[in-house]
């Protein structure tokens, strides 16, 4: 029997394609256009080829910002993934505590990024902030504006407070999907809590951990609003990540060509690293 095709279904997808074209493809093509041209104003453009890309890749400013991004993302993933698993393992699975814990875990995720930055900017101030005032009262010289270490610690703790809940909720969803029969069999065999985690819970959480890992990597690598509000990229350039450097180049210096080239390189780095992480983790999952 010959299969018939109904191509009218494509008309249902057409509005989505048009929306994506306007919201993603067209702005991307505009950036590509700026990245290979130069202008002196009055909408007069001159072909520049790959000059802007070479300039960005040969700049110490780019490599320094990229290094800061990689270090920040590595620290965030190293802390938030194990911490999220630990909290999810200790959350109640039944009873009144379940909705309470879920609501409390969801609250930080509902706060906009600029509000989070403002909260921690005020929270860390020595004169009016609870954290800064308390540390000063304890004799600890804390100043995220002038001290590089304090600025990094503030941004890391802020990100942990804001986004660990995402890891927790994903891990919790994986845990509650495990049938009780697995735990009953482990109890009969006399398995320890570590054995239950190692051979039952962790394998069942692998897929949600993959999602959590990729989401947190992309978010932490693209972080902009929070550090910009809290430190402005300072002290000096200590917390100037690629996103902040990109905005400074495009808006502060109005160098549209280098900014467009940097944004495309930035996008390709995120795409490449995410693909590598996804490939490695899915291959390891398939082998196990």
If you had to describe this structure to a student in words, what would you say it looks like?
The chain contains twelve helices and two strands, in the order H-E-E-H-H-H-H-H-H-H-H-H-H-H. The protein has helices at 10-35, 51-57, 60-90, 97-106, 113-123, 130-137, 148-176, 180-188, 193-221, 225-230, 242-252, 256-287; strands at 37-39, 45-47. It has a two-stranded antiparallel ribbon with strand order 1-2. A hairpin with a 5-residue loop joins strand 1 (37-39) and strand 2 (45-47). Helix 2 crosses helix 12. The two termini are 41 Å apart.
Compute the CA-based radius of gyration.
24 Å
User: What is the CATH third-level topology name?
Assistant: MetI-like fold
Low-confidence stretches: none
Strand content: under 5%
Topology of this structure?
Layout: H1 10-35, E1 37-39, E2 45-47, H2 51-57, H3 60-90, H4 97-106, H5 113-123, H6 130-137, H7 148-176, H8 180-188, H9 193-221, H10 225-230, H11 242-252, H12 256-287
Antiparallel strand pairs: 1-2
Helix pairs in contact: 1-12, 2-12, 3-7, 3-9, 7-9, 9-12, 11-12
